[in-house]
């Protein structure tokens, strides 16, 4: 673990976790909005635009490395009650670079104004619109962090359940997969997690589910069947309260698809990849995401039938 990571952990604990007030949606969103001006902008070579697709808004991010036929649907975190693509502008261009794709970051509806399944409905609509625009599921990927990571997995399950096209693969960073809150790490890592306050989590559940069943696999993918899903890469920090959400989900995904992978990063904070401007481990994790996508594409290409076999 790098010295920068240790300093980052200390800073996060002091300025985010230690001084956090009791959860309030308005305050939570206002604090995030105040932080927006500190989010670094992408390089000038990055092309960003907002695309309106029926009732959906997506932020399109492309770099000189982006392949015109390769696309990633990105689902942001924020416990289903906050967050927006603009807070990821320092990150999504890097994902576009390493995956050589165009990233489409979705503005899905937020709770409590729009409880479950509004976010999932928007994710499904966004994916199907993007699949219709691109026409090649083999070059379409899904990615998300925290609640967005859980949402990405819910999206896979619902697409499969409804017999819709599936992406070639997915990546979930620190995914929230168990809204029934049964993970042992919620207790075991309550003190060691430098960022998340375990006492906030039931409030997030209340806002998002609004009384819906937390064991519904379209809300908590941990309770779904992983059969028939594409390969998934999961990243999580060893000290996170959501560690076991990731570990248990990965075990299930590997049973359904042995190409799925879990990487537990020692002492990394929640969605540490977003600290990429200062954190060496974040650079390494993003590079690993690029390798995961690249290797899957190479495997698919090598297993495709040649001209003689196709005949």
Folded structure, characterized:
With 311 residues, this protein is α/β, with parallel strands linked by helices. It has one domain: 3-Layer(aba) Sandwich (Rossmann fold), CATH 3.40.50. 40% of the residues lie in helices and 15% in strands. It has an 8-stranded mixed β-sheet with strand order 1-2-4-3-5-6-7-8, with helices on both faces. α5 (147-161) links the parallel β5 and β6 (169-173). The protein starts with a helix and ends with a helix. The model is unreliable at 305-311 (pLDDT under 50).
Chain-wise SSE layout:
Elements (H helix, E strand, L loop, with lengths): L2 H15 L7 H11 L11 E7 L2 E7 L8 E5 L13 H11 L2 E5 L11 H17 L5 E6 L1 H15 L7 E5 L11 H4 L12 H9 L22 E6 L5 H14 L4 E5 L14 H24 L3 H4 L1
Parallel strand pairs: 3-4, 3-5, 5-6, 6-7, 7-8
Antiparallel strand pairs: 1-2, 2-4
Helix pairs in contact: 3-9, 4-5
List descriptors.
311 residues; alpha/beta; Rossmann fold; 8-stranded mixed β-sheet; 10 helices; globular; disordered C terminus
Mean pLDDT figure = 93
Strand content: 5-15%
Q: Any idea what the CATH architecture is?
A: 3-Layer(aba) Sandwich
How many structurally independent domains? 1
- Regions with pLDDT < 50 over 5+ consecutive residues? 305-311
Give the helix level as a range of percent.
25-40%
Number of helices: 10
Overall SS class: alpha/beta
Separation, N- and C-terminal Cα atoms = 53 Å
Largest sheet: 8 strands, mixed
Instruction: Using the alpha-carbon principal axes, give the shape.
Output: globular
Question: What's the CATH first level?
Answer: Alpha Beta
Topology order in helix (H) and strand (E) letters: HHEEEHEHEHEHHEHEHH
**Roughly how many Å is the radius of gyration?**
18 Å
Placed side by side, the strands forming the largest sheet appear as 1-2-4-3-5-6-7-8
In the CATH hierarchy, what is the superfamily?
Alpha/Beta hydrolase fold, catalytic domain
CATH topology: Rossmann fold
Q: How many runs of DSSP E, i.e. beta strands?
A: 8
């Amino acid at each position: 673990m790098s010295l920068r990571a240790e300093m980052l952990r200390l800073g996060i604990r002091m300025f985010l976790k230690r001084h956090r007030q009791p959860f309030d949606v308005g305050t939570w969103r206002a604090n995030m909005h105040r932080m927006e001006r500190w989010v670094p902008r992408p390089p000038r070579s990055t092309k960003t635009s907002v695309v309106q697709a029926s009732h959906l808004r997506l932020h399109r991010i492309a770099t000189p490395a982006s392949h015109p036929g390769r696309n990633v649907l990105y689902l942001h975190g924020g416990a289903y009650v906050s967050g927006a693509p603009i807070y990821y502008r320092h990150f999504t261009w890097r994902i576009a670079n390493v995956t050589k794709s165009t990233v489409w970051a979705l503005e899905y509806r937020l709770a409590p104004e729009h409880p479950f399944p509004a976010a999932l409905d928007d994710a499904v609509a966004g994916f199907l619109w993007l699949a219709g625009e691109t026409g090649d599921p083999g070059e379409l990927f899904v990615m998300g962090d925290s609640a967005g990571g859980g949402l990405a997995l819910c999206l896979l399950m619902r697409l499969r359940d409804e017999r819709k096209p599936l992406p070639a693969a997915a990546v979930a960073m620190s995914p929230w997969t168990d809204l029934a809150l049964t993970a042992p790490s919620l207790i075991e890592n309550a003190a060691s997690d430098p960022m998340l306050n375990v006492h906030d989590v039931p409030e997030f559940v209340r806002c998002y589910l609004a009384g819906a069943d937390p064991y519904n696999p379209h809300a908590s993918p941990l309770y779904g069947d992983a059969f028939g899903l594409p390969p998934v890469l999961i990243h999580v920090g060893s000290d996170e309260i959501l560690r076991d959400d990731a570990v248990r989900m990965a075990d299930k995904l590997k049973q359904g698809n042995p190409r799925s992978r879990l990487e537990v990063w020692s002492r990394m904070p929640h969605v540490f990849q977003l600290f990429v401007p200062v954190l060496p481990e974040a650079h390494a994790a993003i590079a690993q995401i690029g390798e995961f996508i690249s290797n899957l594409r190479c495997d698919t290409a090598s297993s495709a039938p040649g001209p003689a076999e196709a005949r």
